[in-house]
């Protein structure tokens, strides 16, 4: 599977809806009764509307995260921020291709949002499973995300390098980022293009495509993990589309 791909399946209850392969209860969990590690029967988890209230990450305080973030208080809100940053990157790549720095800055912002979304999702999922009496290991949840969001490991290493002022190579060994000026060709204007180089340059992906794929993969993975919400454009994206095309379509 390439770095800009993800797995999708049809919903059993709605054939028009697609999302990534479902989370299955086959990861190891610890029985509260006897402390024995068990592997539960593989059962696909279809999202339920009752789980929408369980999207807030674990916190040491009873205060809402919005006290610091203003507009983000749950997993869905952090996903919306990822969408915003991807949209900003897309806009810069298409409309300001002659300057390298804004493109690089925007790419870092996408990766930081993806890294934050992983943290919020893992915390909320573990909290829910614990309340159900089925505690789960954090690493198992993280690995599930990595399996369904192929760009996540890359984004986390980029985010950690940007946040901690030093090169971080943990989940994306042999990975690097390049930004080069591509000359104009027939049907393609010239400009700077940001690329991801995987496995010491053996595989290359264009960031514009990789980030667009990551948005779809993350939405599907959130459905898998029981955070169901419609895959509809946020209001700011609808307004941008309306401004560009007149009717939002």
Could you give the topology of this structure?
Blueprint (H helix, E strand, L loop, with lengths): L8 E2 L7 E2 L8 E3 L6 E3 L26 H4 L5 H21 L4 H32 L6 H11 L3 H13 L11 E7 L8 E8 L4 E4 H18 L10 H11 L4
Antiparallel strand pairs: 1-2, 3-4, 5-6, 6-7
Helix pairs in contact: 2-3, 2-6, 3-4, 3-5
Written overview of the protein:
- The protein is of the alpha+beta class and 249 residues long.
- The chain has a domain at 9-47 and 74-96 and 105-166 and 211-234.
- Helices cover 44% and strands 12% of the residues.
- The chain contains 7 helices and 7 strands.
- A 3-stranded antiparallel β-sheet has the order 5-6-7.
- Strand 3 and strand 4 form a beta hairpin.
- Helix 2 (75-95) packs antiparallel against helix 6 (207-224) and helix 3 packs across helix 5 (152-164).
- The longest helix is centred in the middle third of the chain and has 32 residues, at 100-131.
- The model is unreliable at 7-20 and 24-55 (pLDDT under 50).
Gross morphology is: globular
**Major sheet characteristics:** 3 strands, antiparallel
Strand order of the largest sheet: 5-6-7
Indicate the percent of residues in helices.
Answer: 40-55%
Radius of gyration: 19 Å
The number of distinct helices, counting runs of at least 4 residues, comes to 7
What's the rounded overall pLDDT mean? 81
The class by helix and strand makeup works out as alpha+beta
- Overall number of strands: 7
Strand content: 5-15%
Could you name the ranges where pLDDT drops below 50 across 5 or more consecutive residues? 7-20, 24-55
The run of helices and strands is: EEEEHHHHHEEEHH
Q: How far from one another are the termini?
A: 31 Å
């Amino acid at each position: 599977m390439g770095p800009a791909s993800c797995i999708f399946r049809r919903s059993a209850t709605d054939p028009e809806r697609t999302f990534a392969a479902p989370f299955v209860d086959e990861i190891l969990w610890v029985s509260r009764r006897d402390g024995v590690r068990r592997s539960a029967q593989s059962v696909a988890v279809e999202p339920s509307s009752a789980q929408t209230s369980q999207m807030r990450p674990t916190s040491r305080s009873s205060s809402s995260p919005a006290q610091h973030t203003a507009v983000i208080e749950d997993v869905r809100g952090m996903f919306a921020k990822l969408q915003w940053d991807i949209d900003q990157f897309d806009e810069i790549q298409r409309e300001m291709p002659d300057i390298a720095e804004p493109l690089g800055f925007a790419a870092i912002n996408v990766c930081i949002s993806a890294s934050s979304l992983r943290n919020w999702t893992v915390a909320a999922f573990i909290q829910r499973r614990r309340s159900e009496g089925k505690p789960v290991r954090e690493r198992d949840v993280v690995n599930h995300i990595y399996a369904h969001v192929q760009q996540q490991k890359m984004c986390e290493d980029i985010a950690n390098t940007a946040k901690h002022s030093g090169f971080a190579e943990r989940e994306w060994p042999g990975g690097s980022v390049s930004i080069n000026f591509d000359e104009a060709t027939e049907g393609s204007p010239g400009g700077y293009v940001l690329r991801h180089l995987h496995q010491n340059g053996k595989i290359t992906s264009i960031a514009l495509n990789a980030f667009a794929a990551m948005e779809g993969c993350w939405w599907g993975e959130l459905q898998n993990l029981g955070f169901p919400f419609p895959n509809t454009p946020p209001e700011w994206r609808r307004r941008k589309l309306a401004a560009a095309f007149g009717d939002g379509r």
